[in-house]
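anyone seen this seq b4? input:
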Amino acid sequence: MRTPFWAPDQTSGIFEVVFRRMNLEKTIIGIISISAIKCMILNPSPFANIRYGGQLVLTCEADNEWDSISWRRASDVSYTFVFRKADCETKDNGEGKRAICSKSLNKTTIIFYDTTPKNNDTWECLAAYPGNGFESERTKVFISDPSIDISNETEVLYGEEADILCTLDPGWSRCTWRSVQNDEEIFSIISCRNMTATNYSLNCDINNVTLHVVTPIHQEVFECAGYYFIGEETHSPKGRTMIFIYAMPPRVHILPSTDPTEFFSFKLLCTAIGHPIPTVVWKYENVELSRSVGENAIVFTKLNRTDSGNYSCEGISSHLGTTLKNTTHYILTVQYPPIARINDLVVSCGDNVSIGCLVDEGIPTDYTLLKWEHRFNGTFIQKLNVSNRQFFISHMTLSDIGEYVCVVSNGVMDINRNMFIEGSGNLQASSCMLFILKIY
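predicted toks r here
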């Protein structure tokens, strides 16, 4: 019997076995099928979704009888990496791509790495075998558009510092930070570096760009944008987030309704703005009067001078165990008209007399002293009108006696809405010689 032998590199074929014994001969014809040499992509298959700037990892496995194994892009006739039998090792092209070749007992594995894929493409693993052509397999790689990740809404206490992190895909050409409310660009960088500005600072670490807000005092939305140039196209992904201020100290404002005048109505309105909505507390000389949420008013239906004093309005905001307060004071000075009078006097004729306008309340700015003489026909004649607080009479005579009137004003009306207030007093004589001359 003759046993056929096939070398490993032979192809499939028909074989013939001839048996001879003595004068007998028998022939057997059979078919031998050599299995195809394998080269297949293990990962990923049949396609891969890669984030822009992420790392692409492709794994190819081939039978050990290969003569050369290559990785290449289907769109490029040149090979990225070619391995021969003698150089199954790690290769690096210095452009972010490398491949690792390793052998086991029966298989050879080639792992291909691309650190900065930017375009969709089809990659091919091709294994060439001596005398048998080659085996290859392809996989599609889809690269997503550039994107950024930005911190979620940041909640901070009023006045505390805050950081917002923006993570960009690799390969960005410019990064900007902008305040959305103010429509204002805060920072713009074309290379990774640190910067400072009023109330802000910027820290850049490769693809992590952090905006540091020094003194956040109100809620604000910030936008981070990255710019990428891919071929002839520009991609500019954006992300927005908010700094949310909690337990913001109330801003307290007091609004009087009018000038506080005695006998008239008057209102003090206090409003407070904050977060959460503040409780508004009115106090008089540190004694609480009332409280309500958002705003609070004190109403005087008929103001009295005794209502004067130190009024304070306090706004209180509480959140998560934190309480912040703010207080504004209002000194209430009730305006009221003066009370004027002239003391009654009894003096002797010939004496010197000083008649003065006395004010018990208020501080007048205008004084007028008047004296009217009553005539027998019922009329009055003004005998004195001086703009002075006092009037001096030298050697009083009978013509000086009578009623004197003091008219004062400080610009405040009385309950009858009179701007000028009068007070009066009498000057009388205790003894005066009356001579009657009789002519015959």
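Residues 353 and 393 are 5 Å apart (CA to CA). The two ends are 204 Å apart (CA to CA). kinda curious what u guys think
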